[in-house]
Write a sequence for this structure.
């Protein structure tokens, strides 16, 4: 009798485990749905990903406009990381039906993936970042694939490609500053801070809510 009950318990356990695996796979599919978008201005095609209610480009923008530059002024870095933009240029750089996301939209993204304290690990690309033993590896759970494009300064210098990524938001913090998000190779967090608008950061476009999916 006891052996029969034990056998049934094991079978039930296997069934429950299989059901849970299907549920988790289904949730992941709902949480992140991939696609693509072609920018008609220059013909470049970008991967896109829907995370929650938001659709993002899953690559940094690489559209040449205004004062945008390649890291270290090398075209190969634009191919790898996208271009770097000052804030005023970033505000006008996204293609039609896309926009520079606000501070609130960035917050909605990090909240959806579990909060800013661990969002970096879940949003960073699995490759392309510097690695050190002892730090948690990026998992890119949602296909956002953030890359460490570093930043540029108005004096022409560049820093931290491969180690840090910085992305503008559309939200100002006074006349001379704007909010941004940053990630680095060694920590799980997505940092929220404000910088002078003259800095050159990466750009992720978000799809307008009225645009077709």
């Amino acid at each position: 009798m006891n052996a029969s009950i034990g056998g049934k318990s094991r079978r039930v356990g296997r069934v429950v485990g299989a059901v849970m695996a299907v549920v988790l796979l289904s949730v992941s599919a709902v949480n992140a749905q991939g696609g693509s978008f072609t920018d008609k201005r220059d013909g470049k095609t970008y991967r896109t990903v829907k995370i929650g209610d938001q659709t993002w480009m899953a690559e940094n923008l690489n559209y040449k406009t205004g004062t945008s530059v390649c890291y270290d002024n090398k075209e190969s870095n634009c191919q790898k990381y996208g271009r770097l933009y000052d804030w005023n240029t970033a505000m006008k750089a996204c293609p039609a039906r896309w926009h520079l996301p606000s501070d609130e939209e960035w917050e909605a993204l990090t909240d959806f993936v579990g909060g800013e304290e661990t969002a970096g690990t879940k949003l960073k690309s699995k490759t392309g970042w510097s690695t050190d033993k002892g730090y948690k590896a990026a998992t890119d759970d949602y296909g956002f694939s953030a890359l460490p494009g570093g930043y540029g300064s108005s004096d022409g210098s560049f820093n931290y490609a491969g180690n840090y990524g910085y992305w503008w938001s559309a939200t100002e913090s006074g006349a001379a500053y704007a909010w941004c998000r940053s990630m680095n190779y060694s920590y799980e967090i997505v940092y929220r801070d404000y910088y002078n608008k003259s800095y050159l950061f990466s750009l992720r476009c978000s799809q307008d809510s009225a645009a077709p999916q």
